[in-house]
Predict the 3D structure of the following.
Amino acid sequence: MSLFAQPAIEWEKIINAPSNGYTYMWVVTETPDGGYIVGGQADGGIGGDKTAPNKGSTDYWVIKLRADRTVEWDKTFGGSREDELKEIVLTADGGYLLGGNSNSDAGFDKSEDCKGGYSESGMPPDYWIVKISANGTKQWDKTYGGLGEDYFKTIQLTSDGGYILGGGAKRGYNIIKLRSDGSVDWERTYVGADGFSPFGTIKQTADNGYIIVGYSEDGVGFDKTQPSKGSYDYWIIKVDASGTVLWDKVYGGSDYDTAQDVTELSNGKYLVTGSSNSPISGDKTENPFTPGALESWILMLNADGSLAWENRIGNGRLSFFEEKENGHIVLAGIASANPDKTENSTSAWIVTVDNNGSIVSNLSLPSTGYNFRRTSDSGFVLFSDTYRFTKFANPQPPLPQTTLRINAGGPDFTTATKKLFIADKYYAGTDRTSSIASGDILGTTNNVLYRSARSAPSFSYNIPVGSGQVNVTLHFAETYFGVPGTKGEKGGTGSRRFHVNMEGSRKLTNYDIFSAAGGAMRANQITFPVTVTDGVLNIDFLTGAADQPRVCAIEVVPVSVTLTPVADAYVRGGSYSATNFGLTSSLEVKSLSTDPAVRRASYLKFQLPAQTPVVSAKLRVYGRNHENTKPISLHAYGVDTDSWTEAGITQSNAPATSTVSLGFAAVTDVYQYYEIDVTSYVKAQQQSGETLVSLLLNDPNNRNTRVIFNSKEAGSNPPQLVIQVTNSAARLSQEEVLSEVQEKQPSSIFPNPVKDHFTVSLSPNHGANISFEMVNAAGKSHSIPAPQNVKPGESAEFNIAGQLFQTGIYLLKVKSDAFTEVIRVLKAE
C-alpha cells in the first residue's frame, strides 16, 4: 500500500448486549477524554452492559466508555413504541446530541406525540433529537416531521453553533436547520417532479452553505432542473446558508445510480461516493465487472458542480476517508473479491486514488466491518452493526512536514513570531502536569509557554517523525524552587535534578534547571542532534538526584528524512509490454538492444516533505547482480510525469525519462544498499512546486545482465530516498558548540523568520570580544558587523538589507571569549 502500511490491531471491544434482546450498533465516536461514545438501538431488559429495561419496543441505547474501554455509563432513551438511534454528535458544552427515528407518542423520555402517525408496518415516521449532558442526563428532546414518513439520516454541528439535520421525506430531501437549543431556524424539502428521491447526506461547505447528495428518479420540476438518465441518478444540490438553491446537478447511466456521501476537499472540489450498476451510458464510462452488480462509483465535481472525473471502483461500498497532501484521496468501506482488489475475499477495504481518480493502491484489512471513524492519534475504528469494534493503529506515522512543536502540559499556543506549539500529545507514563497562573519569565517574550509543564517522576514522549536526523530542542523554566511566594522559595541549585534520554542515549545527567538558567523564572533551551531509525522519536524523562523531571516545550526540526516510495514497479518489453509488475516484491533492471523481451526498467515515486527545502537527495536500493560477479552500472533518470500508478504501469504506458543520467552505482553480486546521488533533479522538482518526484532505474550499456532489488512490498530493506534538509557542514558546526552551551542560558533572536531587521538578545554568560556570523545551507560563513560596545545580556540590532542573503535556513553563530553558540534562523523574502 503506497500511502498505508498494513495497520496493526491495537484492541477490540465488544459491548455485551442483553441475552434476551435485539441490538444494532450505528455509531462509534471518540470523545475528548480518550474514550468512546457508542450508540444504536436495543430492546429487551437488563443484561450484559445494559443497566435499564426498555420503555418501548426498541429504544436508543448509549454507552460511554473510558479511555481504557471500560463502561463509564450507559443510558436508555425511548417512548412507548419504536425508537432507533443512528447518529451521535459531540456538542460544544461537552455533552452529546442523539439523532434518529421514532414513531412513539409522548411518554417516558419523549415529550411530544408522533406527528406522522403510527403504522403497524414499522419504524419512522419522525426525526427524534435528544440532547444529553456529559454524564448522560437528558436535557431536552425535540420531534420533527410531517404527516408522512420522515427517514432520519444525519445531524451535524454548524459553524454558528447550531445543527443541520437531514433525511428523506416521501418525495425528496428534507433539511432542517436548528439553533443550538433545538428550535427551528429554517426548513426546506427539495423535490423534483413527482417521483421518489431518497436522501444521502448533507455537509456544510466553506462558504457556510451546504451541499446535499442523494438520488432521484424524477423528471424536471421544482428544485430539479435536469431529467434523470436511468432508473435512479445521483442528484446533487448546492444551497446557501439559508437553504436557497444555488445549483443542482444530475449524474448517472441507464440503470441504478445512488449517491450516499459527499466531502468538500481543500481545493474547493466535491468528492461524491455511491453505487452504480449502470453499463457504459450517460456519464458512466465503464461497465460493471459483473453485469448488473452494484459497484462503487466515485465522482469528482468542480466548485460549480461540473464533472471533473468519474471512476468505477470494485464492487463494494466506499466512502471518503482521508485527503493526502499530494491531492490523493483515500476511500474506505467493504468489498468482496473483484479485479480492483488485490485480496480475493470479502473484507474491509482501503483504496487510494490519484488526482485523476485512478487507483494508486488498495489494502484489505482483517475485518468485515465497513464503518470507519478516524481517531485523534491518526488511527481508526472499524465497526459494523454488532456491538463490536476494532481499533487500528496509525497505518503510517507522518513525516515531519515542518518543525513540530509541542507545548508540554498546555494547550495550543502561538508565539508572537507565529510559531505554533500544539497542545500536549505523544506522551506516556505518569500523567501529571503543573502550571502557574501568572508571572514574568525572564529571557523570553512567550511567558505562557513556560508557565505550564509536564512534570512527573517518570514520563516519556514518543513522537512520530519519520526516520532520519532531527534537532531536538527542549525548553525549561524553574517555576517552583527558588520562586518567592511559593513553598519551594527556599530551594534553588540542586533542588531539582533529573535525567533525559533520547533514542536510548543519555543526553542530560542530573540536569538542574535553576542552575542552568541562572535562577528561577528564567527560560532555558537546549538543542541536541538525534538520529531516528524507526520513525518514532523517543524522549525519556527520568528521576535523578532530586525531585522529578519537568519540561515546558519540545521542538523537533528535521535535518534529514528517509522516504520510502509511495509507488514502485518494474516494466518489461516484448510480449510482456502490457503486463503490470507493480505488486511484486522485486524491482528489476536488464537491458539488451536486440531483444525487447529481455528489457526491464524500474520506476519509483516518492512524496517530498512539504515546505522543507532539500539540500541533498540520495536514492538507495537494496539488491545485487543476480547473474555474475561483474559490476553493472545502474543509472538513475528523472521522470517529470508522476501520474503513473503502481497497479497500472506497463512498458506500453510508462512515461519517458526527462533527463540525462543523474548518476550511477556499480552493482556487484553482493547484497547491499547501492546509492545514487539525485540531488540536482529532486531540488529542481521541489523548486518548481512539485510535491512528487519520479525516478527511473536502467542500464544504458546493454550488458544483458539482470540486477534485482527489493521493492517496497518486500517486507524489508525497501527503496529509500534520503533527503537532507539541513547542510551537514553547518549541522556539524552546531554539534561542536552544543556541548559548550548546554549548561548556559542561550541567546535568542526576534523576529524569526527574519526579513531585513532582527534583534539578538545576548546570553549573560557570554564574555568579551563578541562576534556574529551567518552560516548558509552550504556551510559558507558570512560575517555581519556587530553593534559597537555590545555587552553580554544586552540586545544587539542588525540590518541585513541589501546584503546577499537569499531566502532559506541559516545558522547565526555567536562567538565570545566565553563560548560559542548557534541559533537557527529562517530568512524570509
Summary: Residues 1-5, 397-401, 727-743 have pLDDT under 50 and may be disordered. The first strand starts at residue 9 and ends at 14. The first helix runs from residue 447 to 451.
